[in-house]
Design a protein that fits this description.
The structure holds two protein chains of two kinds. Chain A is an alpha+beta fold. Chain A is built from eleven helices and seven strands. Chain B is elongated, with a radius of gyration of 22 Å. Classes of the chains: A alpha+beta, B alpha/beta.
Chain lengths: 345, 259
């Protein structure tokens, strides 16, 4: 579907992600601490050794992270090995620079080479760690996909919708045709590969088609308030992010009510973050929230897989409504993929 | 040869397209199995109000409905003197289907096929009303309890008393008195089965009495029934009655009040 939204194995980490930066900072400092601890025999020695190492390590670390973060989109486009070599080269240059500037204790060419070798080792270890982490998460991703499959569109919805379409065939063949087209489109998207990120535009289309079908059988009981005029349609999001939550909103918020109920879907961008808010009427006496918990856990997991600590999902009861809030980093899809997917939808 | 009168059918489904579809399929069957749709309703309460006067032979009822689900509807319907036969309809509800199978209740799957509907209607005409026990058991098995209402038969009509309005339930000889803030009704059910079904809502204070947990306002010391020393009585919201707590139940009730 979208080849440049990295398939999981063999990719450089996203240096702009807070979780990745934190892992690198902690990893390198831990290495420095271990190195100091090996040399030192007393606590005072440990502190001074660590500070000694830190004088070279910290400037290198901060400068490298700043450069990688700035060049992140460009780095992501390089083939994995070339990207890795570039990263190593940058680290080496910064290390040499820092070691040279400091040039006190073990100055001289040999000292700089030695420091550079340690820097390369640290880089290789971190690259190995991120590589293994990707691998480790691949089965998790496969499982998340499987769970997504299971948590997907309820049979309850499918059979009731088919029944509603049957009721239209004799008296309004055109609406019946449109409904079957919506249903086909919905299932096509739901059965598509969910590994890669998709665009928000596509998620919105999917959700709209789903709601058209629900409207067919629920009629005026279902009111949808779309607050998506400012939604960043080109934002990359995990697939099936919105539709399962809206399906839950209908199942738990609209169906248990006799009168009309409103679902609010509000999406906006705030600088480099995308905010989604979903609200539906809350029925305390309707207790079957198991399905909802599964869907929430599934989406939370996939947000974490794609955005690490920057993907957040919160949910809870607010007065007479149930509210879900999601926040994730704003990443843009390449322009062609947005238009391409819109045309396909 | 005289033709039998058409089968009188009543439809209950919260989705209007589903009711329309059922009318279409019944229409298609009209030659093979003469039938007449005498009425329809979008929810259980509406249906229980309208239905007794229309005297249907069969009710086709959806299980998944707001407020009162199809199984609760069938339980209330059973208090009529000559209740109609009931056929349940569901799109997909594994627990309900298993419960129907176990209790030999008939059901249809949506979308409903004309041939299958014809079989169900013929069977319903032959066997008549379903047994109250079977529906009660099926509701418990499918997890469709507790009910939202108590139902009381009143001159051929069904009166629904919201469970939330009830302050206490008291066993008398053959009946259970249902006390709300302003009325009393008689229920033909056993206190023990009510205690089980509404465990989260009512608590037993005495061999013959259950009170609504959230109506308990406090306790008062009173002289025991048999005059042997003092006991406790419950003071309740909405009614002046003070109900004695048995010695056996007192520890439970006291814990409830302090916790």
């Amino acid at each position: 579907m979208n080849p440049n939204t990295n398939a999981v194995p063999d990719a450089l980490p996203d240096f702009r992600n807070l979780g990745v930066a934190a892992r690198i900072l902690v990893g390198v400092n831990l290495g420095a601490f271990v190195a100091a601890a090996i040399k030192a025999t007393t606590f005072a020695q440990l502190v001074s050794e660590f500070l000694d190492i830190a004088l070279v390590v910290e400037p290198t670390l901060i400068a490298s992270l700043a450069v990688f973060s700035a060049a992140s989109p460009w780095l992501a486009r390089l083939p994995y090995l070339i990207g890795l070599a570039t990263v190593a080269a940058v680290v080496l240059v910064f290390t040499a620079g820092a070691a040279f500037l400091r040039a006190s204790v073990d100055a001289g060419p040999l000292g700089i080479v030695r420091t550079g070798a340690f820097a390369l080792l640290a880089t290789a270890l971190l690259a190995g760690y991120f590589h293994l982490r990707n691998r480790a998460f691949s089965p998790a991703l496969a499982e998340a996909r499987l769970q997504a499959l299971q948590a997907r569109i309820r049979p309850h919805f499918l059979f009731n919708t088919l029944n509603a379409v049957l009721s239209l065939i004799r008296k309004d063949a055109r609406r019946a045709e449109a409904a079957i087209e919506d249903l086909a489109e919905l299932y096509r998207m739901v059965m598509a590969d969910t590994k890669n990120l998709t665009t928000l535009a596509r998620e919105l289309d999917l959700t709209r088609q789903y709601l058209n079908l629900e409207q067919l059988r629920l009629g005026e009981r279902l009111v949808v308030d779309w607050q998506t005029a400012e939604a960043p349609r080109d934002a990359l999001v995990p697939p099936l992010l919105l539709q399962p939550l809206v399906e839950n909103a209908v199942y738990h918020g609209i169906e248990p009510g006799m009168g009309p109920g409103t679902i609010v879907i509000a999406i906006r961008r705030d600088k480099d973050r995308v905010h989604l808010k979903l609200t539906n009427p809350y029925h305390p006496e309707h207790q079957h929230r198991q399905g909802n918990r599964i869907a929430l856990a599934n989406i939370r997991e996939r947000l974490a897989l794609h955005f690490d600590v920057e993907g957040v999902l919160e949910s809870g009861v607010k007065g007479s409504s149930y509210e879900i809030r999601m926040t994730m980093p704003y990443r843009r899809a390449a322009p062609h993929s947005v238009s391409g997917e819109r045309a396909a939808a | 040869m005289t033709t039998p009168p058409p089968l009188r059918v009543f439809l209950v489904d919260d989705e209007q397209p589903a009711r329309e579809r059922m009318r279409e399929v019944l229409g298609d069957l009209a030659v093979e199995l003469p039938n007449l749709v005498v009425g329809e309703a979008a929810n259980g309460e509406e249906a229980l109000t309208a239905l007794p006067a229309l005297a249907p032979d069969v009710v086709l009822v959806d299980i998944h409905m707001p407020q009162m689900n199809g199984m609760e509807f069938a339980r209330h319907l059973a208090i009529l003197e000559t209740p109609p036969a009931v056929v349940f309809v569901t799109a997909h509800d594994q627990y309900a289907i298993e419960a129907f199978e176990v209790n030999a209740l008939d059901y249809l799957l949506k979308p409903v096929r004309a041939a299958r509907l014809a079989v169900a209607l013929a069977k319903a005409r032959a066997t008549g009303a379903v047994s109250r026990d079977a529906v009660d058991r099926a509701a418990v098995q499918a997890g469709q309890v507790p009910r939202r209402f108590f139902s009381v038969g009143e001159r051929g009509k069904i009166l629904l008393v919201p469970v939330a309005d009830v302050v206490y339930l008291k066993a008398e000889l053959k009946y259970v008195t249902v006390r709300t803030a302003d009325k009393e009704h008689l229920l033909e059910e056993a206190l023990t089965s009510l205690e089980q079904e509404f465990a989260g809502i009512f608590v037993r204070i005495h061999r013959s009495c259950l009170v609504a947990r959230r109506r308990i306002r406090g306790f008062e010391r009173v002289t025991d029934e048999d005059g042997e020393g003092a006991g406790w009585a419950v003071i309740l919201d909405g009614v002046p009655d003070k109900l004695p707590v048995s010695r056996r139940q007192w520890p439970t009730i006291k814990a409830l009040a302090s916790g």
